[in-house]
# Entry
Amino acid sequence: EVQLVESGGGLVQPGGSLRLSCAASGFTVRNTRLNWVRQAPGKGLEWVSSISSGGFTTYADSVKGRFTISRDNAKNTLYLWLNSLKTEDTAMYYCQVGLLKGQGTQVTVSS
# Structure
C-alpha cells in the first residue's frame, strides 16, 4: 500500500525556516516523480515543487530561490526546505505521488 506521511510543519516568524519531511512507503522515491503542493485557507491546491526520478527539480515562481526540494533514497523520504518564509506561505503542505497525497503538515508564518 502506498503511503505518504508528512511532518515538520509549525509556527514560524517571517524570515524563518522550516524543514518538511515526507516519509514514503509502498514505493521507492528514487524511481518516482514527487511533488510538494500546498493549500492556503480558502484557496485551491497550488503546486510548489517537483523532483523527477532523475533528480531534476522545478519550483513555482513564488518559492523559487527560497525553497529547496530533495530526497534521501536510503530513508525513502522526500524533503522540502523552506527559507525566508513569508506570511503568504501559510498553508497546509502535502507531498504527492501521482494523485495521492498524505495528510499534510501545517505551516503558519506569523509574527
The chain is about 0% helix and 50% strand. The first strand starts at residue 3 and ends at 7. The chain has a mean pLDDT of 96. Residues 69 and 80 are 5 Å apart (CA to CA).
